[in-house]
Design brief:
Radius of gyration of chain B: 13 Å
Distance between the termini of chain A: 38 Å
Strand content of chain A: over 45%
Strand content of chain B: over 45%
Largest sheet of chain A: 7 strands, mixed
Structural class of chain A: mainly beta
Number of strands of chain A: 11
Oligomer: heterodimer
Helix content of chain A: under 10%
Order of helices and strands of chain B: EEEEEEEEEEEE
Number of helices of chain B: 0
Order of helices and strands of chain A: EEEEEEEEEEE
Largest sheet of chain B: 6 strands, mixed
Helix content of chain B: under 10%
Largest interface: A-B, 24 and 24 residues
């Protein structure tokens, strides 16, 4: 069966510090991968998605970046965090093919102070 | 572009009450439709789905029917429990790489 992992689970960082969040998927190959941010426990904002190694599509201009160095690894990064980067970050995967659902990881709670 | 409109709440119900969460969509073609649930502090979980018109998805006592004529996918449960307290998201897939989500509705069930 497929599983998706995210770490760390929680993170408290000072403004201006770097960020690296990692997501890995097991039990599938060549998945589509997604990073979302959720503020105030409600709406989902799609940040990045990837359909293959090294292929990144950005949905929202910001000081975050994403990379996919391996087929089942997706990394969200920042060189300098802002207060507004605080939120709940969710990684998701989806098998390639039309009309399929996405499966979400447990999330990372980021607080920027 | 494609869009999903759902009740935003928040909604508070008593245990054993009937639940309906409305969801309507706009899409070209024939999308797949989903309901996701997010329990406090967790990621989203797929609750149910329907891939074509008149399909009924069901899981954990929840049901939703894909109504093409009204472009709707309303979520229902006959008797809610305290453990159903969560945020519920309606979503669609139009065959592209992305899912389109509604804004989510927070449900609180009191004993």
């Amino acid at each position: 069966s497929q599983t998706i992992h995210q770490w760390p689970a929680t993170l408290v960082q000072p403004v201006g510090s770097p960020l690296s969040l990692e997501c890995t998927v097991e039990g599938t190959s060549n998945p589509n991968l997604y990073w979302y941010r959720q503020a105030a426990g409600r709406g989902l904002q799609l940040l990045f998605y990837s359909v293959g190694i090294g292929q990144i599509s950005s949905e929202v201009p910001q000081n975050l970046s994403a990379s996919r160095p391996q087929d089942r690894q997706f990394i969200l990064s920042s060189k300098k965090l802002l207060l507004s980067d605080s939120g709940f970050y969710l990684c998701a995967w989806r098998s390639t093919g039309d009309y399929n659902e996405q499966f979400f990881g447990p999330g990372t709670r980021l607080t920027v102070l | 572009g494609d869009s999903v409109t759902q009740m935003e709440g928040p909604v508070t119900l008593s245990e054993e009450a009937f639940l309906t969460i409305n969801c309507t969509y706009t899409a070209t073609g024939y999308p797949s439709l989903f309901w996701y649930v997010q329990y406090p502090g967790e990621g989203l979980q797929l609750l149910l789905k329907a891939t074509k018109a008149d399909d009924k998805g069901s899981n954990k006592g929840f049901e939703a029917t894909y109504r093409k004529e009204t472009t709707s996918f309303h979520l229902e449960k006959g008797s809610v429990q305290v453990s159903d307290s969560a945020v519920y998201f309606c979503a669609l897939s139009d065959g592209s790489e992305k899912l389109v989500f509604g804004k989510g509705m927070k449900l609180t069930v009191n004993p």
